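Form 7-S
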Amino acid sequence: MDWMEYTVLTTTEGSELVAQVLMDAGSAGTMIEDKNDVAANQRPEGQWDIIDEAIAQRIGDDVKVTGYYEADEKLRDRLIYIRSELQRLRGMDLGMDLGKLEILEHGVAEEDWTESWKKAFKPFRLGSHMVVKPSWEDFDARPGDHIIEIDPGMAFGTGTHETTGMCVELVEKYVRPGDACIDIGTGTGILAIAAAHMGARHVLATDLDAVAVRVAAENVRHNGFGDKIDVRCGDLLEAVDAGTRADVIIANIIADVIIGLAAPVKPFIREGGVFICSGIAVNRLDDVLDALKAAGYTPLDVETKGEWSAVAAR
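Output:
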């Protein structure tokens, strides 16, 4: 079967919102090409680049978010939905520049589909010690590096966005050996795997998307954490057994969901435990902090990169 690629031109700040629109329209996966990721993921002190600078030149100034759709009878309706949602985003006061929001169309044959997004997926660093790489790329690790080998498949997110990066930094800081963790909205499983690398004895990773659950479970097994990470399908907390208690709960979602989760998630966190939440647009940070404080949390860390923030609260 042939496929159609719809690519939306946007900005770093708008890339995650646009990717969600493409996923909601039924995309079999998303790819984000952002030259800012190249600048952010170079090795320091003159070492060899993790990502070739030529990629940044090829990408250009616009951030490109691409979704993949079967060229079937539903394709026209999917395009109409994408256009209407982008128009809705244009009219919203989000406090960020979403860029052109133009749509480019490109047909691709079945045999070329899996190769098209691989070209831009290169190893990149998250936090101080985590390096995310696809299985088809080689990487010379530095002492202390933890390698997370991810093949995104059809699930959303390879981890290059600021929200994931900030989450990894907070995971590195707050997950201790022997901790129990819950990762809500795990996607490809990067944050759950990062928690396991930091010594978590058990991680429950949940996602509403059955495709994401399958891909995350494959990535967990591939990284050798099948005995530590349990991947389940379910919306937010519905896949978490009653009575479960975690030392650290991670939610890299969006501000409104985090605000709604603040109180309900608290009974699942042990006394003194930490709630790490990200995916928060800067203009919604105060709302999230107010909701956390109202639910009885004490903020420990607030990080901001670009137009996004992440919070760790006890």
